[in-house]
Here is the input.
Amino acid sequence: MSEIGIERITKTYPGGKAPAVRDVSLSVRESEFMVLLGPSGCGKTTLLRMLAGLEYPDAGRILIGDRDVTDLPPRKRGMAMVFQSYAVFPHLNVFENVAFGLRMQKRPNEEVKRRVTNAAGLLQLDPYVERYPAQLSGGQRQRVAVARAIVMEPAVLLMDEPLSNLDALLRLQFRAELKKLVSEVKTTTVYVTHDQVEALSLGDRIAVMREGQIVQVAEPMVVYDRPATEFVGSFIGSPPMNFLRGITHAENGHTSVSIGGQSLLAPAAVASADNVLVGIRAENILASPTAPATGALQAETVVVEPLGSHLLVTATVEGQVVKVVTRTDFPARAGEPIWLQPESDKVRWLRASDGLAIVG
Amino acid sequence: MATVALAQRRGPTRWHLYASAILISLFILIPIYLIAVAAFTPRSVLNGFPKPIAPVAISTDTMQAFLATRGVGQSVINSLIVGALTLVLSLLLGAPAGYALARFSFRGRDSFQLLILITRAFPIVILAVPLTVTFIDWGLYDTLLAVALVHTALALPTTVLITASIFISVPVDLEEAALTLGCTPVGAFTRVAMPLALPGLAAACIFTFVLSWNEVFAAVILTVSNRTLPAQVLSSLGDSPLPFRFAGGFALILPALIFIFFIRRYLFNMWGRVVR
Here is the structure.
């Protein structure tokens, strides 16, 4: 029983103008990997710290299983946390760092030795157990921090941007290892990051946060393909989702959206808004150098960037910028016309007034 | 530090570093050496001219005579007691204050940091008479505790500011990690913050002890019979022969050196982080 229930949590820091976390509810399932994703200052770390017990909410409840832990100090919550700065104790060697929590629980020596050795093995730290943190690289220190957390066999594992201090190559490698490790130990995990690639690759589900609130909670591919708001679409993905402004027309049971002088067919529900945003990802646009049959928007090529595996074409449709991914053999040249055909099942229709998706 | 930075700007050579280290060491060691030589030279040799630079004849006569002088032995013990009392009192009062300054933001924090230094703005000479009167009222006059209290007051501002900067250098994350691993706030402090702060605390200890050991004015004013060593030496300096003065000087230096020697290993701690 280690699912997490966060019920209507609000937190304002002393002296803070706006609440850091505002009326947030979220439930994390047993052994789920939940990623809190958002730009800096969106409240994701505050939310994690309240889960850990390092901050207390002004209002709301936190449940682990059916235990209310809202007012419990960190040591009584059965959680373990991995910090962005690693927070490895410099005065203890690797073994004693990993053993720290078990020593606090006054476990017998043999058990400590067995569990620490096991955890150190899982993180490939066996050759370093006698070393002090100053003698380790950043990546090794982060391994110690992770080992120190999982050795506790916590009900919930909390991670605060654990990869952000590692260099790019190491981050990539450790990310895959972390995913494998967490799926093996099957601990309920809450992971905070501002890196959308990390979120997509690690999470069972992603909770996207902005300005102290959760905007969307869904599986990674759903968040990617079907963003609930304009913010989610533009925060996740590289390049971010294209948004074209248009005006709705409904005639003879057909709904269409006009973008400048051109128009796109739209689902009937779109008619509920006058001004809409047409959201489409760069890789879901079919580009052609000549005019196809129907449903394509004429555009002008502005920049062509070869990125090795594909071309990134920047074009303008009626003065609005669109990024398109094409094959490397696509004959695009700056200043020439290009026709863009959005894959109709990948198009997101959003209200222009508040940026919310019209069709769920 | 300035010398080191300078050497690096010109090109960080080991040679510069060693040369400046040796110069600084000589500047401090030569007087200590000369006093030590004089203190262990027989009276007859010492009265001659030129005075010996190398120990030509070693004898403990001078030191023995000095230590046998009435009141000297007791004053050494008094000095040790006052130093220890000062150290304990100023750490007990100063370290928590430093920790609070480092960890918590509270109303008036900045003004507190300034105010604390104002206690040093009053010269002890001005305070001497009111202090004496007060201590007579309290029945503390001519006690070691009185001297230790004044020394604590003198040492406290620096103890607070030094310990504050030490605790600031211990990341909060470490204590928070300890909290999530099962520590109480007090446990996190004693198991994580304290051990990491030890080198700095050792430096604060040295500073406090040496301050107390060398302080002479308050010690002279506040005591009559229970003299500390500097007070004892000072009061009998004028009318004592040269060898007695050398012996007294050496006796004043030695314990501070021994104290620093023992506490030194906490300054260069095992994980290789040198503290300012």
Notes: The mean pLDDT of chain B is 82. The radius of gyration of chain B is 22 Å. Chain B has one domain: 71-266. The CA atoms of residues 125 and 217 of chain B lie 8 Å apart.
